[in-house]
Every structure is written in C-alpha cells, then in structure tokens.
Amino acid sequence: MDCVVTGGNVKVLAKAIHSLSRIGDELYVEPQEDGLALRSVNSSRSAYACFLFAPLFFSRYTIPIGLAFRCKMAIKSVQAVFRSIATLEKTVEKCHIELDEQKNLLTFTLHCKHGLVKTHNLSFQDSESLQAVFDKDSYSNVFRSHPRLLVDTVVHFPPSLEEVTVSVSDDRMWVKNHVEDETDRSKAMLTELCLASDEFDHFSVQELRGLLVFAESTGLPISMYFDEPGSPVVLSVTDSVLEGNFVLATLSDDSNLRKNNTKRACTPPPPPDDFMNDDMDSYLIAMDTSVMPGPSASRPPSPPLTNSTSLKQTAAANHRTRLPSEEEDEEEEEAVDSSGPPNKKFCSLFFGSVRPPSSQMTTQPLTGQEVLASDSEDDVQ
Amino acid sequence: MPLSTQSQGDAEHYVLVASLDNARNLSNILKAITFKDHAIFSATPNGLKVTVEDSKCLQANAFIQSEIFQEYTIKEDSVGFQVNLTVLLDCLNIFGGSTAPGVSTALRMCYKGYGYPLTLFLEEGGVVTVCKINTEEPEEPVDFEFCSTNVTNKVILQSESLKEAFSELDMTSEVLQITMSPSQPYFRLSTFGNSGNAHYDYPKDSDMMELFKCTKTQTNRYKMSLLKPSTKALALSCKVSVRTDSRGFLSLQYLVRNDDGQICFVEYYCCPDEEVTED
Fold first, then answer.
1. Does A208 score more than 90 pLDDT?
2. Distance from CA of residue B131 to its chain's centroid?
3. ipTM, 2 decimals?
4. Out of B164, B170, B199, whose CB is closest to A119?
5. Which domain of life is it from (chain B) (predicted)?
6. Across residues A56-76, what is the average pLDDT?
7. How distant is the alpha carbon of residue B267 from its chain centre?
8. B169 contacts in A (CB within 8 Å)?
C-alpha cells in the first residue's frame, strides 16, 4: 500500500483519526478499491465509526493487489504521528503512508517545511474485518444539520455526561439528560433542549463529540439517521472524497422487547443508571436479541441467520416517514423529571456476514465476520 | 536605589555582590537548568556560572556574564558555594513573579564568603524583602573533558525546528538516538517506543541549519530521562549547537536572549548510554 496525502487533506486525515480515538483504542486500517477505510469500535461494541477516504482524497493511492490487506494498531500510536493539528496545518506539506508487509510496519512519513522529514514506523497486527451492519436508507427518521447545531446542543451538557435522551415527534426534537431520583436535588441539573422537528432514543454522547469535532472543522453537514429505540443511530458526514459514519447503539424501551425471542437469558432490568458514573455495565446487564416486526424495507434481508443469537434491525412495517429538518430554534428549560427512566434493554450492533449488492458503499453492510456482543456482566473499561 | 543604600555599610564584607534591575534575567535562565534541587554557584570576574548535575551523567551550566548585571563586584578570583536552587527560585519570585510590563523585581545578591548564607535583597514597588539562604560546601562539578579539538560533529540549528521535534518525542522510548553524518540522513533524532520507532531528519541544506560540520558518521544513544530537562533550555533559546566528540559525549549549547535582549548561554553535557554504536 502506498498513499500520499497532501496539503489541507493531511489535517482532515488527522482529525478523522482523532475523532476515531474517541470511539475505541484500536484503529482498523483497510485499503480498499474504493478508498482507504479507517474504523474503530468501542470495547462493548456499542459504538462504531468508519471513515472512508476515496482515492481522489489522495494525490497517490496504490493498494496491494490480490489478497485484501487489513490490519489494526493502537490508535494512540497513530495519533502520535499527527499530534498537534495546529502545527500540522502550518508545517506539513505531505504525508506518505506506506506498507512494509515483510516487516509488518506501516510507515507514516511527514514531509514538513524547512526540509524536516518525520518518519514513524508503526507496528500493526493482522486483523479481522470490522464492519457494522446498518442501512441508513431503511431508517424511518433522518435529520440533517450543520454541525454547529449539534455542537451548540451538546455544549449545554456537562462534558462528563454519558447519555442523552432524544425524543422526536412530528415537528420537534428534544434532547435532554436524565436525572435520577436519588441524586441530590440541590446538585442535580436537568437540561432540556427543544429543537423544532415518538420514539425515545437513548444514545451515548461521548462518542458523538468525536464526530462533531471532525464535522465542525471540515464544515460538513451531519446527517442523523435513526429509527426505533434499540436500533442503532447513524450519524454521517459526506463529501465528494470522504464519507464518515458513526454508528451508536441505543437503548430501547421495555415495551418493544416483548416481541423478543431470545436465546440468551434476559436478566431483570438493570437498576436505573447513574449518569455521573460510567454506566456501561448497565448496558451489558441485559443483552438482547429483539427482532423487530415487519419486513425490511426494499433491502436484501440479512442472510439466513442460522445462528439465532445475532441481532437484526429492520424498519418497523408501519414507520412514519420524517422529513429532514433543519430547524434551528432551541429552547432550554429546566424541568424536573419526575418519572424514572424507562426500563432499558440494550441491543448491540450486529456485525454480520452480509454480502452487499455491489452498488453499495462499503461502509454499508458488507462481508465480515460475525461479532456478537457478549452478555457478560463484566465492567467495561 | 533603595537596595544599594541599605547595605552600603556592609559592602566591604561581601566577596560577591551582583545586582539586577530585573530579577527575571536570572530566574528565567535558572529555570532552564532546574532538574535537581542543588546547584553549584561559581563566580569569577567574568560572571556567574551555575551548575546542576544528575548522577554524574548529565551536567547543565548556565552562564550569566558580568555585563548582564547592573552591578557586579567580586573580591576574589573565584567564589564558590552550593545552594538549594528551588529555594532560590522561590525567593526570586517572592513577589509573585508578575509579568506585567514595567513591573519587575529588583535583586541584589550578596555573599560574604565561606560559611555565610547567600543574602538576597528583593524589591518591588517599594517593598523590600531580605532572604538568606544557607549555603553548603560546593561539590566539584564533573569535568566531562569535552574539548573542541575532540569534536567530530557539530551542527547549529535554529531552535524553532528542534522545539517541535522535542515536544513530540515518544516518551515511551528509553533512549534518544542522535545520528550525525556527512551523508544522509545528516542529522537524525530517533526514538524507539512501544508503538514503533520514529525518526526526525534535518537535511544539511535546510534553512533551519545555520552550520553543518560533520566529519564522520556517528550514532549515539542517550537516556531520554537525562535529556528531557534540556527541553526547558531549548524553549528559551533561539539557537542551539549540537556537538559530539570522539567518545560519543554530547554537548548542547543554547543561546538565550533575556528580557532585555542580552545574550546568555546554557549548556548541557550528556554521557552516551552504555552501548555506543558507531557506524
């Protein structure tokens, strides 16, 4: 593999890597015919991100012929190559990425001003393909906006906040955090924003920040695709030479899960989570294999899942279509939420072995090995 | 000046008196060598030299010539003592180290000789503080026997480019390897860390390279922990000279301009790490 990134694109590449680092600890690199895919997933498989850089993004793009090459490496090592974004902008003229298959090294060479050449030889491990299964087009809801809107929304919440609740009705969207009954009322703060344009979706806001930083710096609009609670929400930025998709798992309502047929035991609903702590363990307490009713929208169905412990998300048969909205008014109100959170069950993402029709973008469902979320109750991180 | 009139009577008793209108001209440069608590002060008619050492493998020297001082009187050929550098810096910054323009701490440093404390008179805005810091018998600084005749390779770089490299150095690497050569890669800094190795190459014709005199290819490794403190000196400097001698000993000399634009020097000597490889 031999690619060259020049000028301002070096900064874009660096920002993509930094935003992937918000998701997971490892960077999966896969040079494909349609571009270089950089992916990351978190340890509980509840958040996934993929950036695909088309060959046009590079001033030179040569990939190994024959057997597909995939590797993974510690994302911190790659971040070290692009440590200071501000300096990158000012000093780096081009970045050369080369693969030395014999020595198992991926070399990043930065050619900088004043003749300075920085060479980083990073070791990698061979890896399985990392692909999340999702189909943006089949989602019932799409929301597209300039990243500024989402950044302005997220900024109202404390940086330590793990989760937000997003509720959507025909013409409005609410974003709020949840305050536990036990929390000391004098210290609790409920923030609720109403954005104009009935479904409760909970999803993690930490990983979202990674995408927002990237999108804001590149000025690209963010599209948000979401569906029923439990279905992953997909945030996407696209331009002519790159596509980034962040897929975040959501917590579903209890009511949706009566239709479950599960092989894995569902433990009783987790205790209401405490927002001030890392509550990923409550996600893992009940792993579920809910099957949404109704056929998939015009998509090839997921392959015969002989292994019924895998998950599927398909659009509900009677979903309402939503128009993308770009409304910008926000209201912030402080209100005390007296009802407890809905009982949560967590549906993780399905990484499946779906072979796509060739016309699809490769960040869509693709070949890959099946990765199932564990139902362990261990702590994550 | 309130400080000088105050101790006029004692003037005959001091073997060393050095005054600065702006104490920062001393404290800033001392910060560049503060990696250990104790410093050896050595004053001669030429000026003040402050030495800090680490485990006999690293030595840093700060030179403040007599011309930098508003007053510099020395009654002996050489006056030496050892003090706690951290305490000294705390005293020099006793008024809070404000960096507001026009506001500075004036300093009068006085020493009566062996066994006496180092007396500092510090004044700012009409308020005078007197500090007396206990002195100790000065240790003999290590003589690295680094002399210009033994220098095999020398480069002078503008600090700006080296600052970037030093700030990005992979700290998981135990050593910093320096390669100097009359041919490619000319001047290379390398690290070997957890995730892989990294090389920073400066070509001899770079416009950051002010002088390039390499006679033979040499690669030497130095403990990262020893060289890391030199980053402070690098940060203050505008130029740095890097020299290695036939034994692989490293000399880094930094040209520092103080608040008033005057030039001072800071120098670091470092022994190579055990296995010295020479290509």
1. no
2. 24
3. 0.83
4. B199
5. Eukaryota
6. 86
7. 5
8. none
Query: What pLDDT is stored for residue A356 in this prediction?
Result: 32
Task: Tell me the pTM.
Answer: 0.70
- Contacting residues of B for A85, CB less than 8 Å apart: none
- Say if CB A68 and CB A88 are below 8 A apart: no
Q: What is the DSSP letter of B260?
A: T
pLDDT < 70: residue spans in chain B: 1-12, 97-99, 275-279
The angle, 0 to 180 degrees and rounded to 10, between the axes of the packed helices A147-154 and A206-218 is 140
Cβ–Cβ under 8 Å, residues A5 and A13 = yes
What does the pLDDT read at residue B167? Answer: 87
Q: What is the mean pLDDT of residues A15-20?
A: 92
Sheet of strand B209-214: strand arrangement: B79-84, B38-44, B47-54, B58-65, B263-270, B250-257, B237-245, B151-158, B209-214
CB atoms within 10 A of CB A309: 14
**A28: which 2 tokens?**
């999966």
Is the model more confident about A165 or about A79?
A79
Beta-carbon separation of A115 and B198 below 8 A: no
Which residues of B lie closer than 8 Å to A, measured between beta carbons? 161, 164-165, 167-168, 170, 194-203, 205-208
Nearest CA in chain A to B207: A114
**pLDDT at position A212:** 82
Q: Which of 71-90 (A) contact B at CB < 8 A?
A: 73-74, 76-77, 80, 83-84, 87
pLDDT tens by residue, A307-354: 222 222 222 222 222 222 322 233 222 233 333 344 333 334 443 322
| Closest Cα in chain B, distance from residue A114 (Å) | 5
User: What is the model's pLDDT at position A276?
Assistant: 32
In our burial notation (b when 16+ CB lie closer than 10 A, e otherwise), range B57-70 reads bbbbbbbbebebbe
